[in-house]
TrEMBL record:
Organism placement in taxonomy: Bacteria, Pseudomonadati, Pseudomonadota, Betaproteobacteria, Burkholderiales
PANTHER family for the chain: ABC TRANSPORTER GLUTAMINE-BINDING PROTEIN GLNH (PTHR30085:SF6), AMINO ACID ABC TRANSPORTER PERMEASE (PTHR30085)
Residue runs in coiled coils: none
Domain of life: Bacteria
Listed GO biological process terms: amino acid transport
Protein name per the record: ABC transporter substrate-binding protein
Native species: Pandoraea aquatica
Amino acid sequence: MWQRHLAGALFATLAMTGITHLAHADQLADIKARGTLVCGTQNASEPYAFPDAATRKIVGFDVDVCTALAKGLGVKLEHRALSTDARIPELKTRRVDVLAAAVAWMPARAAQVDFSDQYFVAPIRVLVRADSPVQTLDQLSGKKIAASEGSSSAAVSVTRLPDSNLLTFHDISSAFLALQQGKVEGLVAGQLILARFANEAAAKGGQQYRLLTKPVFEERWGVVMNKGEPALREAVNKILVDYDKTNGLQDSFEKWLGSKSVYKFTRDYKVEPIKVQ
C-alpha cells in the first residue's frame, strides 16, 4: 500500500514539475496573454533611469527602451525600478520579464542569463588634467593611473594598460581627488562619471580636465532575459532593430546622452549581436 502512495506522490510531484516547466516554457506567450511587459531598470542611475524631479516618475534612456519593447510587443508596460544588486535576482525569480538596466555583458553573467543584441555601448575612458602632456593611451606607460577598487575599470586597466602603474582607491571620488592633487596622471572610469567630473570642474572655473579620445574598453549593454526563451529573445532583437531604424534609439540617445544633454556624447555604435572583446 505504501508503495502505491509513494508512487502516486512521486507522479504528482513530477507532474507539477512538468506543469511548472511548461508554464515558463514560452515567456513571450505569457507576456502577450497577460497583456503586460514587466521591464526592470535601475532605480537611481541618471540619465539611464532616475526619478524626474517634477513628476516623480522614473525616466531615462533605459526607460525609453522598456517603453519601446512594450510597444513593439503590443502590450502595456509595467515598469519596475530596481537596485543594482536586485536586478538579476528579480529576473531569475521571474518578478520581472526583462531588464533594460545598464547590464553590461560579462562571461559570468552570460552563464546565468541571456542577452539581446546591444542597444548601448558604454566606453571606459581615461580622464587627465587639461595641461597634461598625455594625449594617447600609450603615453600612460610607466605613469600612475587611478581607478575605483573592485570596479570593472580597475580590472580592464590591468590587462589593457599593463605598462601603467595602477593605484586603486576606496571609491571613485577618492580616485578623482588623487588626479586633482597630481598624485596620478589619469583616472580610469566610465565615460559618464568622468564627463560629470570634468563638467563640474569647468563650472567651478578651477583645474580643467579632458578625456583621452580612445577608450580603454567598451562595455556592451543588452536587454537581459532568462535562459531558454528563444521566442522572447528573437522578438526583443527585432524590436531593437526597428527602434533603431525608425530613429527612436537615436532620438533617445540625443535627449539623454547626446546633443540635447549636458554630456554631448556622440553615438558610434549600432544595434547588433554583442561581440566578445
